[in-house]
Amino acid sequence: MSREFAPEYIQSLKAYSSAKSEKLTGSTWLNANESPYAKEYALNLDNLNRYPDPQPENVINAYARYSNLADENILMTRGADEGIELLVRTFCQNGKDSIAQFLPTYGMYKVTAESANVALVDLSQALLINAPQSELLDSVGNAKLVFVCNPNNPTGNVLPLSRIEEIVKAFEDKAIVVVDEAYIEFCEEFTAAGLIEKYQNLVVLRTLSKAFALAGLRTGFVLSNPELINTMRKVLAPYPVSSVVAAIAEQALTSCNISSVKRQVSIINNNRATLINQLSACKHVRKVIPSFANFVTIQLSDKAHIATAMESGLIMRPFTLYGEDNWLRISIGSEQELNVVFNWLVEING
């Protein structure tokens, strides 16, 4: 019955397959780029009978301090995913406009565009990294939004800030460049947030899901100039941030907790380096992509080795990349969790 009401383009959609959408069973979970660190937060639930502040002032102030921007540059959303959706809904016309993405990259750009009946311009990471401005402009065409995931998911590679600025400048009067910085805390020197005051066509997406270890909170931020932020607020739901979410986010953004996050990031980055060394020594690992995020993506000699891990309870994220289905993304967990990965590598190494 529902198919009779839904538009044809909705009927043909394939839902985004997240790491948690598959009903898997396991004992070691390294498939969703989650932080291995958990923290308890104090909550006051006395005011749940009242609607929350649509943009909680204390959280906005705290994130402005953290990102070295002004309050007017910040919009709080339900995860960075809502930021992606808001951008498409605000700046793209249904059935007319398009967005550009550089494959392989985060799957929600495609899902969001298709659900809004917005066309996709699929380009390569190689083009993003190496192409001269003229070629980049010709390839993107009339796309309204240009999505750049930096560091990129699922590969983990990063664009230098100079290249990001070159791209933003190239599209200054042509398109909005959206730099998705979900993993930027693991390589904060590459952030484009400092370019926001300089360019009117730049949007930066952030999240508390990764380095801040709050994937379950679903909290993100859109960073941009006041004009774009205010335009997006016209499309935003009336009460997008719950009181509970705001209370936890405010605590997460205290200077004390940010210092703790930085220490955890340092440990994760060190664990990543150790894992890369172990992976590089395994004869069944064909390729290790250098990563600047909290995961490492590898190509195996045989995808059957992934099944071996799954059967033992070690859950990682298989991918089909560059037309081959023997790729695997491994989240950087605790030392104990990565020991499980090491034991798996020893096992398949024979």
Structure, explained:
The protein is of the alpha/beta class and about 350 residues long. The chain is about 35% helix and about 20% strand. It is built from 13 helices and 13 strands. The strands form 3 sheets. A 7-stranded mixed beta sheet has the order 2-8-7-6-5-3-4, with helices on both faces. Strands 9-10-13-12 form a 4-stranded antiparallel beta sheet. Strands 1-11 form a two-stranded parallel sheet. Helix 4 crosses helix 5. The termini are far apart. The mean pLDDT is about 95.
Blueprint of the fold:
Elements: H1 2-5, H2 8-11, E1 28-29, H3 57-67, E2 74-77, H4 79-91, E3 98-103, H5 108-115, E4 119-124, H6 125-130, H7 133-140, E5 145-149, H8 161-170, E6 176-180, E7 202-207, E8 220-223, H9 226-233, H10 243-252, H11 255-280, E9 285-289, E10 295-300, H12 304-311, E11 314-315, E12 317-321, E13 324-331, H13 335-349
Helix pairs in contact: 4-5, 11-13
Question: Which characteristics define this entry?
Answer:
350 residues, alpha/beta, 7-stranded mixed sheet, 13 strands
Class by SSE composition: alpha/beta
| Number of DSSP helical runs | 13
Mean pLDDT: 95
Largest sheet: 7 strands, mixed
- What is the 3D shape? globular
What share of the residues does DSSP label as strand, in percent?
15-25%
> How many distinct beta strands?
13
Distance between the termini: 54 Å
Poorly predicted spans: none
Q: Can you write the helix and strand succession as a string?
A: HHEHEHEHEHHEHEEEHHHEEHEEEH
Indicate the radius of gyration in whole angstroms: 21 Å
Helical content class: 25-40%
Strand order of the largest sheet: 2-8-7-6-5-3-4
